[in-house]
Specification:
Two copies of one chain form a homodimer.
Chain A: H1 2-18, E1 23-26, H2 29-38, E2 44-47, E3 50-53, E4 56-62, E5 69-73, E6 79-84, E7 86-92, E8 94-97, E9 99-105, E10 110-113, E11 122-123, E12 126-128, E13 131-133, E14 145-149, E15 155-157, E16 160-162, E17 171-173, E18 186-188, E19 191-192, E20 206-208, E21 221-223, E22 226-228, E23 235-239, E24 245-247, E25 250-252, E26 257-260, E27 267-269, E28 272-274, E29 285-287, E30 293-295, E31 298-300, E32 311-314, E33 332-334, E34 337-339, E35 345-349, E36 372-375, E37 378-381, E38 389-391, E39 398-401, E40 404-407, E41 419-420, E42 425-427, E43 433-435, H3 441-444, H4 476-481, E44 505-508, H5 514-521, E45 526-530, E46 534-537, E47 541-543, E48 546-551, E49 558-562, E50 569-573, E51 578-582, E52 584-588, E53 593-597, E54 606-611, E55 614-616, E56 620-623, E57 630-636, E58 639-641, E59 645-649, E60 659-665, E61 668-670, E62 674-679, E63 692-696, E64 699-701, E65 711-714, E66 720-724, E67 727-729, E68 735-740, E69 744-748, E70 751-753, E71 757-761
Parallel strand pairs in A: 1-2, 2-5, 3-6, 4-7, 5-8, 6-9, 7-10, 7-11, 8-12, 9-13, 10-14, 12-15, 13-16, 14-17, 15-18, 16-19, 17-20, 18-21, 19-22, 20-23, 21-24, 22-25, 23-26, 24-27, 25-28, 26-29, 27-30, 28-31, 29-32, 30-33, 31-34, 32-35, 33-36, 34-37, 35-38, 36-39, 37-40, 40-41, 44-45, 45-48, ...
Antiparallel strand pairs in A: 42-43
Chain lengths: ~775, ~775
C-alpha cells in the first residue's frame, strides 16, 4: 500500500515537473506581441526593466485556474509604461504584476481594461502590484476611465492609483449583458491616492454600474482598500448594482461619500471614515434604494452636511424615473459609531418639495424612508452637537432602537431616537475612540432585529456571539491593537511620497530673467524672495508647480511691472501650478492679464493665493479658459483697482465650471469696470461641491459701471455663496448680487451705499443635466 | 460494539416514540381555537367533517422541520369552510391539508394568508390539497386576494382554485421588507381553474410583487401548475421580482399571457401554451426588462396579438418611471417551438411614438430591445402565416441565430431571422406536434450562445447533452409518451366538474307563474320552451343560471308582455346569470327595462344572448348597473324598436367598464331615441381585453334624435370596435360613431344616408389610471 502511494506521488511529481512554468523574457513591444501570440497556459512573460514607451498592450490568452498566464515586470516597479499606452486584457486566467504607469495617458477610453473587444472579454484575470500615477488625459474635459471591469471574476489588488484629474471615474465596472453580471469581481487591498477636485460629476473613484443596471446582480467586492483625499466629486464610490460588498475600507479625508446610488442589498461593513476640522466636505455613507445593511462602521470628524452627511438617508421620488431616486426601504443601520461628527444622522436628505414649481414632478423627492431600522448605534461627542439628527422630511418610517448618544454628557431630546448616556471612551489614537467600560449596562442593551444574528463580528473582528455591545467596537483590546498600516495597501514595492519638508528659499534680484530662472530652478514647494523694489516682467512667468513669490522685506512691498504682449498674462498658470504671492504690487497697462491658465492641455488643476498685494491696471485679474479648473483661489488683504475686469470664472458650459473654492477676505475693489467677480455654472446637477464663493470683509467702490447684466458679483448656478461684512459704495449697478435661496447662498451684515441691492431668489430654474 | 449500537438505537427509538404525533380532534371553532393555543411541535389538529360556518381561523404555531404542526380535514374534502371565513397562518412549519372553501367569502383581504399580523408572518408553511371554489366577494368592485404570500419558504401545492370574479389577483406574493425577500416560495402542482373575464386590471391569477419590488430578489417557483381559462385580464401571471422560475406549467386556453412585467432574470422553461381558433385572446409570453431565459416552451394555436402575442418582446421607455416599461435587454429566447400560432414573434410591442402628443414623455415606449438573442427556435405552420414576425419598432438589437421556419413549406423572406426548411412533424395529439426526423440536418444546427450549455434538457426532460436539436422537443419518443394528466394537478380527492351534457327541456304554458316556476326548477344549462303564443309577465324573472328560453314552435314567435312595476326589468340578471332568448317578441310600456343586472351584490358576470327576437316599447333594452359586468352580449337577427334607450353599458368610472364582448349581427334598430348603443370606459390602462364591440350587417333607422352628445354609437374608451356592413339611414345625429384610430377601432362598408358621419380620431386623450 505504501509503495503504491509512493509510486503515485512520483508520477504526480513527474507530471507537475513536465508542466513547469515557461519564462519568456521580452525586451521590446515587438517581442511582447509575439510572446502574447504564442502564449500557452502556465507561461510567464517577463518585461525587461526600463521605460516602455507608447505600449499599447492587448494581452489575450487562455490560461487555466491551475496554470494562469502571467505578464510581469522583471523587477516590480522597474518597468515604466509611458507615453500613449494601455493594457487591455482578454481571455481567461491572466495575471499582470508589477507595472508602473506614469508620464503619459491612454489614447483609448481606459488604461487597464478587462476586455479587448466585444468577443474578447476577460474572465478570472488579475492585475496586481501595479501603479498608475497621474496618467491623465491632456484635456480635462475628455472622458476616460483608468480601470474598466467587464466579464466576471476579475481582480484588482495591491495597486496604487492616483492623480486622475480629467473627466471620468477612476475605476468603473460595467454590466452590459449576461456575460457581465454576477461578477464576483474583487477590488481589494488597493491604495487609491489623492484625486483632485474635478468640479461636477463623473469623477468618482469607483463606480459600479449605472442607473440602467439598478436591477442587476453585481456581487462586486470592494474591500480592504485605502482611499486618501479622493476628492473628485461628492461620490467616492457610487454603487449602482445589487448585492455588492464594501467592507473594511478606510476613507481618509475624502471630500465625498460612499453612495448607495442605484444599487440595492449592499453590505457596508467595518469601514472607517476619517475626517477633520479643515474641511466641511468630508462625507460618510449616503443611502438610496432598498435592502442595504450598514454595520460596524466608524466615523470620526465627518463634517459634511446634507448629501455628504456622515449618514445621509435620502428621500426618494415616488415612481422614480430609472435614473433618479428610489425611495429608501428595508435598510438596516446597526452597530455603527460616530465620534465628533457634525449632525451625523440626516434623514430625508434631498427632500425638495418646495422646488415643485421649478422642477418637473419626476425630480421631487417627496417619499421618505420606510420599513428601515436604525439600532444599536453610538454617537459620541466631546463637544455638544446642537443637532445630531436632522430631519429633512419624515422620520417615522424608521424604527430607532437602542441607540445611544453621549452628547458631551448633555441630554439630547429633540427626537426620541436615542437613550442618553455617559460613556467612558478611551482615545486610542488621533481618530479612534473606543468604550472603555464594557460592563456599562447601556452598552449591553442590544436590540435583536430581524436577521441581526448574521452580524457575527465587530469592526475589528471581535466576535459578537458570546458578548455583544452596541456600536462598532465590541472589544477594547482588539481596538487598541488596531493601527492603519499603509503598507498593507497598494504594491509592496511602492510608497506614496510624503510631502517634502525641505522647503528651499531662493533669492531673486531684478536682473533680467533672474526671477524666471529662479522659478525654473525651484522645486515643488519652494519659495522665491524678491530682494529689489522694482521688477519688470517682459514675458509671462510659467507656473507649473507649487511656489511662493514674496517680498523679502515684509514691510516694503515689491513692485512688478508687466510689459508682455497683449492678451498674455504675467503669470501663466499651468497644470498643477500653485502660486502664492505676498506683498507685491502688480502693475500693467491695458490688454494684459494678471493670471491666466493655458488655453489648452490644462489637464490638471491650478491654485492661486495672494496676500497683501495690489493689482492695478490689468484687463483681467484672472480669466479662466474653457476646461481650466482652479482648485482654490484665496485672496486676502489685497487691493484690485483700475482694472477693466476682475476675476472671471465663466468659460464653461453644461455643468462644468472653472473653480471650486474661491475666497476674498479683506480685499478692496476699486474702479473695476466689469466682471468684478463673475463665477458661473450653467446647468445643474447634484454631483458637485459647488462651486463655493466666499466674500468677507471687503469693499467695492465705483465698480461695475460697464457690466451689461447689471450684477456686481455674479454667481449664477453656484451652489455655495457667502457674502458677509462687506461694504458696497457708489457702484452704479442694479444688483450687488442675485442669490439662490434654495441652495447654500447667504448674506449677512453687508453695508450697501448707492449700489443697488442684494436680491434673493428662492428657486432658480436651471437646465438639468441628466 | 454491536451492543452499544443496539443500546443507542433503543434509546433513540424510545425518544422518538415519546415524540410521537399528538392528534387533536376538534369539533367546532371554540375547540379549534383552544387547540391552536395549546399546540406543540408535531401536533396534528384534525377538523371534524362537515360544514364549518364563519370560520375565522388564525393558525399560529411554531413547528420544526422534523416536527411540523398540522391542521387538516378529518377526511380530505369533507371539511367545508363556508360563510365569512378565512385561514391565516403565522409561525413556522405549519401544514394545512384537505380543506374545501365554498359558499362564502373572506371578510378580510385574503382567504389564505401566510401572515396573521405584522409580527406573525408565516415561514416554512404549507397549504396543500385544498379547494377554493367561487369564494368571491359579493361586490365585484371590492378588492381582495384569495391567497396571499408573505415570509419565506412557504408553499401552496395540489390545490384547486377557481371562480374569483371580484377585483384583485387570485394569488399574490408580497415582498414588503427583508423578512419577505429571497423567499423560495413554492407554488406547484396546483390546478388554477377558470377565472372569468373581469374587465380591467387587477385580475391576474398569480402576481409576484409590484412595480416597487422590481429590484428585489424573489426566488419564487411557479412550476407544474395547470391553468385553465384563467381569463381575468391580459396577465395570467405577472412577474414583478427577480430570479423567479416558471417551469413546466400548462396554460390551457387562457386569455392572457405569462408576463415578465417588472421582474428580471426569470427562468421560463418547459411551459406549454395551448390555444385554439375560438379566441383571438389566448396569449403567450410577454417580455419586459432584463436577463430572462425563455427556453423549451411550446405554443399551439396562440392567436393573441400585440400585448398577447405568442412571444411579445416589448419596447421600453427610456429612463422609465418605476411603474412603467424598462427597456428589454440581455434576454435569451432559445429552444422554443410555435405551432400554428398567429404572428408568433412580435418585437417592439407597445411602441407608441405616435402617441407623443397625447401622452406624457414618460409613457412613450421608444426604446427597442437590445443585447438579446433569439436562437434555435422553430416555427411550424400547417397553414401559411403571412407575417410570422411583426416588427413594431426595431429588431436589430436582437441577434437571431439558427431559427427555423416551416411556413407550410412556403418561403418566408420579410426579415432575415430564419432559415426556411421543411419539417416532417408528427401530430401526437390535438395540440402536440414533434419533429419526426431527428436526423434532419437543419434540426441539428444548434447555435451555442453564451451559457447555453446550462440548458441541459428539453421540454419533456430529454437530455440535450449527447444529442441536441433546435426547438422545444429534442426527443420524439418522450414527446409521444407525454399526456396531460389533470389528476396530477390539484387535490387527489377532487376533480373539477365537467360541463354537464344531460341538458333538460322544460315546457311552460302561459299559465300564471308557470314560466317563473320552470325557471326556478331548471338546472344550469337547461332549456325552457314556450308552448303558448302570448305570455304576460307581471314580475321580473330572476336569471341566476344558464338558461335558454325559446318559442317551442320555431316558426312562430311567442309574444311576452311585461307589465311589472316601473324601473323593473323583464329579466333580472343575477350573478352567473346567462340567458338566451330565441324567437320571442318582448313588449312593454314605458319606464320598464328588458334586461337589467342587480343594483348590488353583482358578484359575478352575466351573459345575454338573443336570436330572432323583437324588443318593442321599453325604456331601456339593457341598463348596466355600477359594478355589473357582462361577459358576453350577443344579439343576432333581432329588431329593437320604439325604445327610449337601447343598450347602455356606461355605469362605471375609473377604468372599470360594464361588458367585455358585445356583438350585434343582422339587427335592426328603429326609433330608438337615445343611447342606441352606449359602451363607455373612463380612463385608460393596458391591462384589459377591451371592451370589444362588433356591429355587423345591421340597420339603424330614425334613431338617436334624443341623444344629447350627438353620437349614435358611443364607444368612448373602448379598445376594440368594429363596424362593418351596416346601414345608417335618417338618423338625426351629427356622428354615427367617433372611432379611436390608434387602438383597434375599424369600420368598413357602411352605408350612411342622412345620418352624419363616422369620424376617426387617431389619438384620444384619456385619464391614465396608474
Amino acid at each position: 500500500m505504501k509503495n503504491a502511494i509512493l509510486f503515485i506521488s512520483a508520477v504526480l511529481l513527474l507530471f507537475s515537473c513536465e508542466k513547469k512554468i515557461k519564462s519568456i523574457y521580452v525586451k521590446d513591444l515587438e517581442e511582447l506581441e509575439l510572446a502574447i501570440e504564442q502564449v500557452a497556459p502556465g507561461d510567464d512573460i517577463v518585461l525587461k526593466n526600463g521605460v516602455w514607451q507608447d505600449a499599447k498592450i492587448n494581452f489575450y490568452g487562455i490560461g487555466t485556474k491551475d496554470r494562469p498566464i502571467t505578464l510581469r515586470a522583471e523587477t516590480p516597479g522597474k518597468v515604466f509604461i509611458e507615453g500613449a499606452s494601455f493594457l487591455h486584457l482578454g481571455g481567461e486566467y491572466l495575471n499582470v504584476k508589477g507595472l508602473y504607469f506614469r508620464n503619459g495617458y491612454s489614447p483609448k477610453n481606459a488604461i487597464i481594461r478587462y476586455m479587448i473587444g466585444e468577443d474578447s472579454t476577460a474572465n478570472h484575470c488579475r492585475v496586481t502590484s501595479t501603479v498608475i500615477d497621474g496618467f491623465t488625459k491632456p484635456n480635462r474635459l475628455i472622458n476616460d476611465r483608468w480601470i474598466v471591469f467587464y466579464g466576471k471574476h476579475n481582480k484588482l489588488d495591491h495597486c496604487y492609483i492616483t492623480g486622475k484629474s480629467n473627466d471620468g471615474e477612476t475605476l468603473r465596472v460595467f454590466f452590459t449583458g449576461n456575460e457581465h453580471i454576477n461578477t464576483y469581481h474583487q477590488i481589494v487591498d488597493n491604495y487609491f491616492g489623492p484625486r483632485p477636485r474635478k468640479g461636477g460629476p463623473r469623477a468618482e473613484t469607483i463606480r459600479v454600474g449605472d442607473s440602467k443596471t439598478r436591477v442587476s446582480p453585481g456581487f462586486v467586492n470592494v474591500s480592504n482598500n485605502y482611499f486618501e483625499a479622493c476628492n473628485g466629486e461628492v461620490e467616492i464610490i457610487s454603487d449602482k448594482t445589487n448585492f455588492n460588498s464594501f467592507k473594511n475600507n478606510i476613507f481618509y479625508k475624502c471630500e465625498g461619500s460612499l453612495v448607495l446610488r442605484h444599487g440595492s442589498y449592499s453590505s457596508v461593513d467595518g469601514n472607517i471614515f476619517i475626517g477633520g476640522d479643515e474641511s466641511d466636505f468630508y462625507g460618510g455613507i449616503r443611502v438610496v434604494n432598498t435592502g442595504h445593511w450598514i454595520t460596524n462602521n466608524y466615523f470620526y470628524k465627518i463634517n459634511g452636511s446634507n448629501f455628504r452627511a456622515p449618514l445621509a438617508i435620502m428621500n426618494g421620488i415616488p415612481m422614480t424615473p430609472l435614473n433618479r431616486y428610489l425611495q429608501v426601504s428595508d435598510v438596516v443601520v446597526t452597530y455603527n459609531t460616530w465620534v465628533d461628527c457634525k449632525s451625523p444622522w440626516q434623514i430625508g436628505v434631498g427632500q425638495n418639495i418646495k422646488s415643485a414649481d421649478v422642477l418637473p414632478i419626476s425630480e421631487i423627492r417627496s417619499a421618505p424612508p420606510i420599513r428601515s431600522i436604525v439600532a444599536n448605534n453610538i454617537i459620541y461627542n466631546t463637544k455638544k452637537d446642537e443637532s445630531p439628527v436632522i430631519n429633512h422630511s419624515k422620520i417615522d418610517g424608521i424604527r430607532f432602537k437602542n441607540n445611544l448618544i453621549d452628547n458631551n454628557n448633555i441630554k439630547y431630546t429633540t427626537y426620541d431616537v436615542f437613550q442618553n448616556g455617559t460613556l467612558k471612551m478611551k482615545k486610542i489614537n488621533d481618530w479612534l475612540y473606543a468604550p472603555e467600560d464594557a460592563k456599562n449596562p447601556i452598552l449591553n442593551e442590544v436590540y435583536e432585529g430581524y436577521d441581526f444574528n448574521k452580524i457575527q463580528n465587530d469592526i475589528f473582528g471581535s466576535s459578537r456571539t458570546d458578548k455583544n455591545t452596541i456600536g462598532a467596537i465590541n472589544n477594547l483590546f482588539l481596538a487598541e491593537k488596531f493601527k492603519i498600516d499603509k503598507k498593507k495597501y497598494g504594491p509592496d514595492w511602492f510608497s506614496p511620497k510624503e510631502t517634502a519638508n525641505n522647503q528651499k528659499v531662493f533669492l531673486a534680484s531684478s536682473a533680467e530673467n533672474e526671477l524666471a530662472d529662479k522659478i525654473l530652478q525651484a522645486a515643488d514647494g519652494d519659495i522665491i524672495e524678491l530682494t529689489d523694489s522694482l521688477y519688470t516682467i517682459g514675458e509671462s512667468l510659467k507656473i507649473d508647480k507649487k511656489i511662493v513669490i514674496r517680498a523679502k522685506d515684509t514691510k516694503n512691498k515689491v513692485k512688478l511691472v508687466f510689459t508682455g504682449t497683449d492678451d498674455s498674462s504675467a503669470f501663466e498658470m499651468n497644470p498643477r501650478g500653485n502660486i502664492k504671492l505676498e506683498n507685491l504690487i502688480l502693475i500693467s497697462s491695458k490688454n494684459k492679464f494678471t493670471f491666466a491658465p493655458l488655453k489648452e492641455k490644462m489637464f490638471s488643476n491650478y491654485s492661486l493665493f495672494m496676500e497683501g498685494c495690489t493689482i492695478n491696471g490689468f484687463d483681467y485679474v484672472l480669466k479662466a479658459t474653457k476646461g481650466s479648473f482652479a482648485d482654490s483661489i484665496h485672496i486676502k488683504n489685497t487691493i484690485i483697482k483700475n482694472c477693466k475686469n476682475g476675476i472671471e470664472l465663466a468659460a464653461d458650459l453644461k455643468g462644468d465650471y472653472n473653480a471650486e473654492m474661491v475666497t476674498f477676505d479683506h480685499c478692496e475693489f476699486e474702479n473695476v469696470k466689469g466682471n468684478v467677480i463673475n463665477f458661473f455654472r450653467d446647468g445643474y446637477d447634484e454631483s458637485t461641491i459647488g462651486g463655493c464663493l466666499n466674500v468677507y470683509n471687503s469693499t467695492f467702490t465705483r465698480c461695475g459701471n460697464a457690466d451689461s447684466n447689471g450684477i456686481l458679483i455674479q454667481t449664477r448656478g453656484i451652489v455655495n455663496v457667502t457674502l458677509n461684512n462687506n461694504t458696497f459704495k457708489n457702484n452704479p449697478i442694479k444688483l450687488v448680487a442675485l442669490l439662490w435661496g434654495e441652495k447654500n447662498n447667504h448674506q449677512m451684515n453687508n453695508t450697501i451705499i448707492n449700489s443697488g441691492i442684494i436680491k434673493i431668489e428662492d428657486q432658480q430654474k436651471l437646465n438639468i443635466l441628466y
